[in-house]
Amino acid sequence: MKVISFIRVLFFFLYFLLIASPLSFAQEDLSQSWFNPHRVNMLIFLIFFFAIIIYFIDRAKKGKSLFIRRIAGLDAIEEAVGRATEMGKPVLFIPGIEDIDQIQTVAAMIILGNVAKMVAAYDTPLFVPICRPMVVPVAEERVKEGYASAGRPDAYNRDNVRYISDEQFAYAAGVQGIMLRDRPAANLMFGSFFAESLMLAETGFLTGAIQVAGTANIHQLPFFVVACDYTIIGEELFASSAYLSKEPKLLGSLKGSDLTKAIIIGILALGAILETLGITQFTRWFFIE
Amino acid sequence: MDLGTIIWNTIALFLTVCIFSFLYKDNPFYKFAEHLVVGVSAGYFAIILFYNGFVPKVWIPVTTRGEWWYLLPAILGVMTWTRFSKKWAWISRFSIAFYMGIAVGVALPLEMQQRVVKQLHATMLPVHFMDIQGFWNLLIILGVLCGLVYFFFSVEHKGAVGGAARLGIWILMIGFGAGFGLTVMGRISLLADRIQFMREWYLMVTQALWGA
Asked: Does the model's pTM come out above 0.80?
């Protein structure tokens, strides 16, 4: 039955794709309208991909085993925490400089919870400098939960989750100060980073700390690749949060996005072939005003 | 040249040198500049948020136009302060949940449009060997496909998938290398700007002192 439902959805998708092209709608003033017919393609994409992700989340919730390949950088987190414990030095977790409404910061918070659990088990101090005020309560909760789930709620120190500054370079200067004075043995940088990425990674390198970084901001990835021991690239950041938490919603959405990527690869290959043959209708369907 | 300009530029030069002293090692001058910038930015942002946020978006609509519903987001904002009390800290979760929910809802269609559909449209290119452009198109399509394969998490990177993923990571690394070079050029121009500032300060001071 599920296969039949899937085929129905696929036919519905293909019908809109090939027949009900949004380009056929007349050009009119849509500023006062609730529905923009020129964006039907977007609506179909969203519905289709949501359906896939919801299907996989449902599977994960039912306890079906969902395989995720090993992500090399994640093993390095435990290695880094272990090294800091051996050296008797703290671990520094930097969750990027964007607010909690950004998905990268949310992923960083999930990883932070797991790191907190690890450091609590090893009895290693954890410092979390924060750039945005709204991230502070979430980070506090995640660290507190991590300590509680490791059976050490008493070891949680609220002062170690610190707000530094909203200003990008003031934040970078503050974090550099922490790196130089507290000398953490492990710097974990996960989230959304911008021009401060190289400043932080380079200072961490100078202090001799083992560094693991992950961001989906492609322009900052080169700096992490150069200055860090391990780098988690782009979507691996979101996969890491699913891999570590084993949360059904995250695992399901990761599997769903994998299938989405497979579909995108198929569409891309088909589009390129049709373009080569001079058939442009298919490609035009993906045009957004 | 008035005295005020000379004094402020000298302070700016002093702070620039304080920050550059970090290149040697951590020292009291760097610490002073660091603490100054962190403190000033915190104060500056508090004032900016008050005058650019609270006054035009809450105070003026409520007091001058009687649009009392603008108080609702203000109440949500005040609710975040309950974190200072252990007993009432749970209330702050409502505002955080509201904020995140709205942000995700707004972001989803935009992300789909900008990062998926538009990219897909731009990558469906004709492949031919009549001129060099056809070859570049093929390279772009292969690069995107292999890059996407690298980000498959449901399968092990072995065999054909592993080969495509390896090619994908090479292409990503070439892209990172180009990005690195471009950004380093930008940073060097920032350094040149600071050196230019120092030179102008020197000329300004010598002119003020000796008139030359």
From this structure: yes
